[in-house]
Amino acid sequence: MPFTDFLGPCETCGASNPAQHVALDQWIVRYVYAPEGSHQNVKLQVLNSEQATCYCSLACADPGAEAFLAARGIHPRAYGAGPIEPCAKCGAPINLAEVHLSYELTEGTLREAENDTLELHVSDSKTLAKLCENCAADIDPLAAASISRQVDHVDVACGHRPAVKCTDGDL
User: Fold this and answer.
1) Domain limits of the chain?
2) CA angle (128, 132, 136) in 5-degree steps
3) How does pLDDT run across 16-29, given as a tens digit for each residue?
């Protein structure tokens, strides 16, 4: 059995997904902003990632992801780096420095690695939608519970897990 069978069929056309494919992923993320005047950029912390659907190509992914989100009342939109952006379902403001749910379209290649494991090498990703905590709970209660757990474990002062000693240079 080829390792690409792990991906299942394309959600749009039903074809087998190749090693190089496109996925609609559900990420639990937060942005870490450098102090004002710093030369550093905004960092994205991906705290959890789950694949929602998989597509054989961008030609299938674009309409497929739009239909997947529309079925849940989510309206894809363009996002900047915040710090405040609207929820793609209800329009409520989301503070991107806080843990939130994001739908990402990722292009990547699945490869066989050592010890019979698989590695996904992501070549590109695009944010399609961000959800506030209330809408995330409506769409996916398990993701909302995971967001709550992540919030409980993130040190609000610096954004790192409490077990990590932080200095101003870490941001």
Assistant:
1) 3-170
2) 80
3) 877 788 999 999 99
